[in-house]
Amino acid sequence: MPTRRLMPDVIKNQTLSCLPPDATARDAALLMAERRIAAVLVTEGRTLKGIVTERDMTVRVVAAGLDPDTTPLSVVMTADPDTLEPSAAAIAALDLMERYHYRHLPIAVDGEAVGMVSIRDLFAVVRAHLEDELRSREAYMFGSGYSADASVG
Q1: Is the Metal-binding keyword given for this protein (predicted)?
Q2: Helix (H, G, I), strand (E, B), or coil: what is residue 76?
Q3: Which distant-in-sequence residues (6+ apart) come within 8 Å of 81 by Cβ?
Q4: In this structure, are residues 139 and 146 in contact, taking their beta carbons and an 8 Å threshold?
Q5: How far apart are CA 10 and CA 122, in angstroms?
Q6: What is the pTM of this model?
Q7: Does residue 61 contact residue 85 with C-beta atoms inside 8 Å?
Q8: pLDDT tens for each residue of the chain, 153 residues long
């Protein structure tokens, strides 16, 4: 896991879901529903301005009693979010997300959005790493022909 980089090891061929700061909360909700995602990057061109998540929509729009049809994302987004570079280690993203309770973290280069990593993406990497470790240890302890999945005859 420590050697896995955010791009291309964790995420690759990602289509960014971005909206401008003057788009409405309803626009963001519709985009999230259409793409079955939980966060949208707020950008001007490719320049990252913020991030809006499902949690932001719940707390900052619905619970606050704002009208999603007229509330611009600039009002409810997390402005200037923490980011990591594509070459950052997956463990660095996991540490940052755990420390600040993020579930989504933008990936940027010189202020330009190039991706977004989710806790689900990182979970998949951790799981694959643990499975590889288990297979490696089983092979060491029981020999290379051993498999926990082998059926007993």
Answers
A1: no
A2: helix
A3: 48, 50, 51, 105, 106
A4: yes
A5: 7
A6: 0.81
A7: no
A8: 557 888 988 898 899 999 999 999 999 999 999 999 999 999 999 899 999 999 999 999 999 999 999 999 999 999 999 999 999 999 999 999 999 999 999 999 999 999 999 999 998 887 776 767 777 777 777 776 555 555 554
Specify the amino acid at residue 150. Answer: A
Q: Which two three-digit tokens encode residue 58?
A: 């719940």
At 131, list the tokens. 């499975």
Tokens 């996991």 belong to: 94
Q: Which two tokens stand for residue 98?
A: 């755990």
Q: Among all chains, which residue has been given the structure tokens 């092979």?
A: 139
Which two tokens mark 80? 């200037």
